[in-house]
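Project outcomes to date are best conveyed with an example. Our students and postdoctoral researchers have been running inverse folding experiments weekly, and each run begins with a structure described purely in tokens. The record below, which covers 287 residues, was selected by the lab manager from last quarter's runs and is presented without edits.
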């Protein structure tokens, strides 16, 4: 991905090396609530005619030979700068989009930490992985996750990294729109549908990430191979693939994020259409 280093975003909170101030908590990358209202809330913004097309990002300049999260200060510093760029770029897009729809977008913050840290959701740890906490409107990320994504899940590259952050920013967008709260209420009212609602929320976040990625394509920020890296990352963290690798069996009823095929397909929907109207996973008969 073509990008320029500039002053680090004011929305980045760097807690690396500060020790574990947090306790193990839960990843609350989603909220929750009633399906009918979800569709209404989505369409209020999506039908405002302020959205564009659909695609994906990647390529940070050479990270100096160091692996993501490797402890190499120069490499990790450049990676933080890249995360800062993606954070500002994606939030700039959503802020403009909200403004054109006569809404106000409150920016999320990105907390980069090592090991564990405090969060409004009870604590963030490396084991949880990157996640969004709606209680404090912050995204939590340990850079070591990218090493895991590359080595364990076979999804290297800077757009793989950009996709991960764009997905978490999309959860903040859902929180700003009230979609997350609506889904949470629906989950409380219908426990049998709780996992399916979680999957629909996650797939919508993948689709929203694809919509933002399209804007980078329009601005000629994408380079050859960027899209493939994003798609590989989406496939790598599908519930079916993770279950197969960790337990040797697939239990569809326990999915919370969607299969590799679903995650790839919904990311591509956003990328190819460049329009959040293509991201109404709650009205889709089949995921």
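After processing, the design step wrote out the following sequence:
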């Amino acid at each position: 991905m073509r990008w320029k280093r500039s002053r680090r975003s004011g929305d980045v909170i760097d807690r690396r090396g500060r020790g574990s101030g947090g306790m193990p908590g839960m990843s609350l990358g989603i909220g929750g609530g009633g399906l009918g209202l979800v569709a209404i809330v989505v369409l209020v913004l999506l039908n405002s005619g302020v959205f564009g097309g659909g695609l994906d990002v990647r390529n940070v300049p050479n990270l100096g030979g160091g692996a993501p999260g490797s402890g190499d200060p120069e490499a990790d510093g450049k990676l933080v700068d890249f995360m800062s760029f993606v954070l500002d770029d994606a939030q700039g897009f959503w802020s403009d989009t909200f403004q054109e729809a006569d809404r106000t977008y409150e920016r999320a913050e990105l907390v980069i930490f090592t090991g564990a840290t405090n969060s409004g959701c009870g604590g963030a740890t490396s084991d949880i992985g990157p996640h969004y906490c709606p209680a404090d409107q912050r995204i939590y990320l340990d850079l070591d996750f990218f090493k895991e994504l590359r080595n364990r899940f076979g999804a290297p590259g800077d757009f793989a990294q950009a996709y991960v952050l764009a997905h978490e920013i999309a959860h903040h967008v859902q929180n700003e729109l009230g979609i997350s709260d609506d889904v949470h209420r629906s989950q409380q009212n219908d426990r049998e549908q709780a996992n399916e609602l979680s999957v629909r929320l996650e797939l919508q976040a993948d689709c929203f990430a694809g919509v933002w990625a399209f804007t980078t394509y329009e601005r000629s920020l994408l380079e050859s191979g960027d899209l493939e890296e994003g798609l590989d990352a989406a496939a790598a963290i599908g519930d079916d693939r993770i279950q197969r690798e960790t337990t040797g069996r697939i239990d569809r009823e326990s999915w919370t994020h969607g299969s590799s095929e679903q995650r790839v397909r919904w990311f591509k929907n956003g990328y190819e259409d460049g329009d959040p109207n293509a991201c109404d996973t709650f009205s889709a008969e089949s995921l």
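The radius of gyration is 18 Å. Confidence is low (pLDDT under 50) at residues 21-67. The training component of this project remains on track.
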